[in-house]
Specification:
By secondary structure, this protein is α+β, with helices and mostly antiparallel strands. The chain has two domains: 36 residues, no CATH class; 80 residues. Helix content is 15%, strand content 38%. The chain contains one helix and seven strands; from the N terminus they run H-E-E-E-E-E-E-E. The strands form two sheets. A four-stranded antiparallel beta sheet has the order 1-2-3-4, with no helix packed on it. The chain has a three-stranded antiparallel beta sheet with strand order 5-6-7, with no helix packed on it. The chain is globular.
Length: 117
């Protein structure tokens, strides 16, 4: 965890609070940052039994997933938009709920295009 990452996170938190009109401190403000960032933040299995591992990220960044087959071989990386949660992964789609800039939740389905060979 670097000072630059902490400063960027603090900047984003200030922006979000300002957008919502929050001016007072919260109980979470005094919690120290960890010394290290976790390597991943989410795990999912798709319909074919492949493991999707989401790398840890800051909130506004796209989610980058590493996908592994049932034998542990890396199949590739996939990015999903930020501000969402993946609920289901099929053979040719990713389904989830995402929030827009007004915090309105939307169910979205993205086509999953696999590379050849």
């Amino acid at each position: 965890m670097t000072e630059a990452l902490i400063e960027e996170r603090e900047r984003r938190l200030r922006e979000r609070r300002a957008e919502r009109g929050v001016t007072s401190a919260t109980p979470f403000d005094d919690i120290p940052y960890p010394a290290d960032m976790p390597p991943y933040e989410n795990l999912r299995l798709d319909a074919g039994g492949n493991l999707w591992v989401a790398y840890y990220r800051l909130e506004e960044e796209p989610v980058r997933w590493a996908v592994f087959d049932p034998e542990g071989r890396w199949l590739g990386n996939v990015e999903t938009p930020p501000n969402g949660r993946v609920w289901d992964i099929g053979d040719d789609y990713v389904l989830g709920v995402w929030q827009d800039e007004l915090d309105v939740q939307q169910v979205r389905m993205y086509r999953l295009v696999k590379g050849g060979g």
